[in-house]
Amino acid sequence: MNKITEIFKNNKALIIYLTAGDSSIDKTEEQILTIAKNGADLIEIGIPFSDPVADGKIIRDAMARALSKNIKLDDIFNMVKNVRKKSDIPLVFMTYLNPLLFYGYERFFKRCSEIGINGLIIPDMPLEEQDEVKSFADEYNITIITLIAPTSKERISVLARQAKGFIYFISSLGVTGVRNKITTNLSAVISEIRKVTDIPVAVGFGISTAEQACEIIKYADGVIIGSAAVKIIAENKKNTVLKLAEYIAEIKRGMTS
Amino acid sequence: MSKGKFGIHGGQYIPETLMNAINELETAYNNFKNDEHFNKEFTFLLNEYAGRPSRLYYAKNATEKLGGAKIYLKREDLNHTGSHKINNVLGQILLAKKMGKTRVIAETGAGQHGVAVATASALFGMKCEIFMGEEDTKRQSLNVFRMRLLGAKVYAVKNGTKTLKDAISETMREWSRRIDDTFYVLGSATGPYPYPQIVRDFQSVISKEIKEQLFEKESKLPSAVIACVGGGSNAIGAFYNFINDKDVKLIGCEAAGKGIDTLETAATIAKGKLGILHGMKSYFCQTDDGQISPVYSISAGLDYPGIGPEHAYLHDTKRAQYIPVTDDEAIEAFEFLSKTEGIIPAMESSHAIYHAMKIAPKMKKEEILVVCISGRGDKDVAMIAKHRGVNANE
């Protein structure tokens, strides 16, 4: 079984996002290990990009902070290598296509596989544009995560059919960010997906509280929390790790109770 | 399967949330682009509302002063709203109306596209919201007021470099927030397929007219057509109907800012590398780590780190040539045309004029050089005054 799919086997999965180099690259390592220890099942590591068109202010600012510290791809690869010595939690990169193209697709995928990255989420690479990276993803065994949006409609079955690892269902229109309310009819979309595949579905965009997470796992196999975790990192310059640990544990408790 | 490629460039590198909206646009455009009724309405608007055809003016004084090729100016500055932008905007708003959309959003750099969109929205009774980099709202404050006067909401974008690049990103984000009733009127020959094709088709009226007008006056083709290039909408419009006329040189002038050897430049072909941004693969100015570089030009309309995918392809195939022109050179041309012909061109267009000044003297007298004057320079007068140390508002 795909290492990513495995996390959904015995429980509802909690997926946490953070931006690499947001505090500093060493602190990111510490934060990843903390998130892993406190109940996350998979961690999404954001590779900062200058023009993140699918991201809201919180993640945009985190990426800008990381870039202002001159974080390079190789710094991030080295950090992940260190994480891998201490944790075997599945890790996926979230970034935009340009940094990959610039680094060289094959070189990028090869490096990912060497350091133990399991998958990749690229918001500006719709299914139609995946051909140019697919052969490398297959060769180096990196799972490309399929995103499905509230606007996907008749695309859902095509997207779901080729999905691997898990399906990232975008809960709301717009960009990443904390939202008070998720208005999309999750059960309808998920049953649409279920018609064509058994691949687990995790829901992201806008989720920040244990209450929201509980509501979502009534229908879905997991939740993805991004901006809310990034906000904790941004707002707690001291005690970051402690606050992060408390937050993740609280969400996980809520999801399992 | 990737769609809408020009060689390796173009494509649809956009979030899944927007894919159905872009497919809807593609279907609608394919339905209407050859529709007789649609084209009749579009031509009527271009002629009766925007004032086309625009003049092809023989610049006798400039020709004599430079002492070489005969120089013709394609006067897009005489269009309603003062630039070529209105051509594409009328086409897209008409399309939006046919698609049943009631609200339009758009990015703008110098404000010329924003003004054109606000104008056409007023005409068509559409809600209109414009995103403009905060830096550009300061450089072009008069255009901000014009847009508001026309009933549009203008947002100053405070992200990133606070210029055109960030205005485009923010308009894409806004589109993904609200899709059903909203049409994104993209202003340059950039973005995901089918935008580069749509913008090119609506702007190709420029080269269609040049060809007809020149044939009437001179009974021949020009030796070269010169236009400025940011994203490249006036240039692709001025080039398009000449692409198959292999003897006609096509020359795009990009903004070198303070020089291509400095960091303050926006010369994408000279400095850029293959990249992906704003839905397209093309050339982009980038750092050594694949981040999009902050770029600079005195002219807000050329201050963009990328170039339209069809231009990238015309460059790859060597069908067109792209030349960097600095701020100082553009200012020299701005002053030259103002004094020699009594025509104040936009700073953007002045980049093209400078190159004409450079090559015309080396050409034969019977050769013809067509320069696209993409817009008028009224919007730039205060900035030029400031550049010279004069406060035009006092």
Describe this structure in words.
The complex is a heterodimer of chains A (257) and B (394). By secondary structure, chain A is an alpha/beta fold. Chain A has one domain (8-145, 208-256): TIM Barrel, CATH 3.20.20.70. Chain A is built from twelve helices and nine strands. Chain A has helices at 3-6, 25-37, 57-68, 73-86, 97-103, 105-115, 131-139, 156-161, 186-194, 210-216, 227-235, 240-256; strands spanning 13-19, 42-46, 91-94, 119-121, 143-144, 146-148, 167-170, 201-204, 222-225. A nine-stranded parallel beta sheet of chain A has the order 5-4-3-2-1-9-8-7-6. The two termini of chain A are 27 Å apart. The mean pLDDT of chain A is 95. In chain B, 43% of the residues lie in helices and 19% in strands. Chain B is built from 16 helices and 14 strands. Chain B has helices spanning 16-32, 36-49, 60-66, 85-98, 112-124, 134-139, 141-149, 164-177, 195-203, 205-218, 233-239, 268-271, 309-316, 327-341, 347-359, 381-387; strands at residues 5-6, 9-13, 56-58, 70-75, 103-108, 127-133, 153-157, 182-184, 224-229, 249-257, 273-277, 279-284, 320-326, 368-373. A six-stranded mixed beta sheet of chain B has the order 3-4-14-9-10-13, with helices on both faces. A four-stranded antiparallel beta sheet of chain B has the order 1-2-12-11. In chain B, strands 7-6-5-8 form a four-stranded parallel beta sheet, with helices on both faces. In chain B, helix 3 packs across helix 14, helix 5 (112-124) runs parallel beside helix 7 and helix 9 crosses helix 11. Chain B is globular and about 55 Å long. The mean pLDDT of chain B is 96. Chain A binds chain B through residues 49-51, 53-54, 56, 60, 64, 67, 72-73, 96-103, 123-129, 131-132, 147-153, 155, 159, 170, 173-175, and chain B through 1-3, 11-21, 159-160, 165-166, 169, 172-173, 176-179, 273-279, 281, 284, 286, 289-292.
